[in-house]
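agent> Task received from the user: take the single chain below, predict its 3D structure, and emit C-alpha cells. No templates, no multimer pairing.
agent> Plan: (1) validate residues, (2) run structure prediction, (3) serialize to C-alpha cells, (4) report one or two observations.
agent> Step 1 OK, no nonstandard residues flagged.
tool_call: predict_structure(input=
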Amino acid sequence: MFHNIFRGLQVYTGAYGLISKLKLWKYFVIPMLISFVVFILIFVSAYGLSDNLGEWIAGVWVWEWGKATITFISTIIAGIIIFAIGLILYKHIIMALSSPFMSPVSEKIEAYYTGQPTQNYTKSTFTKQLLRGIRLSLRNLSQELLFTLPILLLKFIPVVNIFSTALLFLVQAYYAGFGNMDYTLERHFTYKESVAFIRKNRGLAIGNGIGFMLLLLVPVIGVVLVLPLSVTSASVIAVDLLYDDDGTIGFEPFEKLNA
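)
tool_result: status=success, residues=259
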C-alpha cells in the first residue's frame, strides 16, 4: 500500500514535461477556468459562513466565563468544517464538468505509451462522458461525505483531532485520485468495473490524490495547475495498470515519463 501511494505521487515529477511534449495545454484551458471560478466561490463561502457557524457552535456553552475563547475555537473549527466540505464539493464539481475535456488528454497519453490508436471499448461519447462523470461524482460525493462527517466530529476531541486531520486528508485524496483515473478507465470499463478496478489499486489512487490535495495548498497557481498535473499523472498510472494487467503490451510508463 505505502509503496503504491509513493509511486502514485512520484509520477507528478514528469507530468509537466509530458503535457508540454504532447502539446496538451490547449485541452486544459476550460477546465482550468472552471477550477479557478469554483474554488473562489467556495473560498468566499467558507470565509463568510465560518463566523456564523462558529457562533452557533459556541451557543452550546451557556456560561459567561471562557465564552470568548470558546467562540474563537468554534470559529476556527467551523472554518475547517466548511472548507473541508467545500473542498469535497470543489473536487467533484470540477471533475464532473471537466470529464469530456479530460478524455482527449488521456487518449493522447495512452496512444503515446502504447504506440497504437486508443480503443473506445465502452463506445463513450461527449454526452456519455459528461453523464458518467456526473454519476461518478455523485456516487463518490455521497460516500466521501459519509466518511467525512464522522471524522469532522472527532475534531472536537482533543489529541484525537490531530489524527482526524490526517485521516480526512487521506479520504479526500482517495476520491480525488479515483476521479482522475476514471478519465482513462471510462474507455475500457463500465461504471461498475471501474469502481472495482480502482478499489483494487487504491494505493495508487491515494498517491495521485495526495498530489492533487497538495497542489491546492499552493496559492492561485495550485488551483490552476491541479487538473493538468493530476489528470496527466493519473492517466499514466491508469495506462500502466491496464496494460500490465492484460499483458498485451510490454512497456514501463513510469520510467518513460521521465525519459
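agent> Step 4: summary for the user.
Confidence is low (pLDDT under 50) at residues 245-259.
agent> Done.
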